[in-house]
Amino acid sequence: MRRLVSELYVRDNCHPFKATVLVWIQIPMWVFMSVALRNFSTGAAHAEGFSVQEQLATGGVLWFPDLTALDSTWILPVSLGVTNLLIVEIFALQKIGMSRFQTYMTYFMRAVSVLMIPIAATVPSSIVLYWLCSSLMGLSQNLLLRSPGFRQLCRIPLTKGDSDTPYKDLFAAFYSKFISRK
C-alpha cells in the first residue's frame, strides 16, 4: 500500500508536504507583522523624524481615526470574528461526511474565531485592521477558487466533487443549515 501511495505522489506530483509549505510561511509572517504593528502602535520602534506611531495615530478612517487606540465600538473585532467564522463555515458546508478529526477541528476553529473577538478588542486598531484584511483576503480567495470560470482561466483542473454552480450550492447549504432549520 505504501508503495502505491508513493507512486501516486510521484505520478501526480502531490506530496502532502507541498500543501503545508505555504502555511509554514504564512503563520510566521502573520506573527511578525502583528508584532511589528504592535511595536509601531506602542512607540517601541523608533525612527528619525515623524514617527510611525504619530502617523498611525492620525492615519485611521471612519470610526477608528487613531490606529494606535483600541476600537471602542467593537466593529473591527466583531467583523474579524464574523469573517473568520464565515471562512470556517464555508469549509464545513463543502464537506459531506467529515471524519471525527475534521469535525473536532471545525469546532476548534469556530471557538478560535469567537475567541478572536475579545482578543482583537484588546489590541490596537492597526493590528485588528491587518487581521481583518488578511481574513477578508482569505475569504475572497476561498470564494474565487470555487468559480469554475476562474479555475478554467488559471488552468486548475476540476475534480469530481466540483459543482457547476458552486455559489448557488453554497447558499443552498447555508440556507438549509442555518435559516430553514425546522
In short, what is this structure?
By secondary structure, the chain is mainly α. The protein has eight helices and no strands.
Number of strands: 0
Number of helices: 8
Helix content: 55-70%
Rg, Å, rounded: 21 Å
Mean model confidence by pLDDT: 80
End-to-end Cα distance, whole Å, is 45 Å
Could you explain how this protein is built, in words?
The chain is an all-alpha fold and 182 residues long. It has 8 helices and no strands. It has helices spanning 2-12, 16-42, 52-58, 75-94, 100-120, 125-144, 148-153, 166-179. Helix 2 packs antiparallel against helix 6 and helix 4 (75-94) packs parallel to helix 6 (125-144). The model has no long low-confidence stretch (mean pLDDT 80).
Which characteristics define this entry?
single chain; 182 residues; 8 helices
Topology:
Elements: H1 2-12, H2 16-42, H3 52-58, H4 75-94, H5 100-120, H6 125-144, H7 148-153, H8 166-179
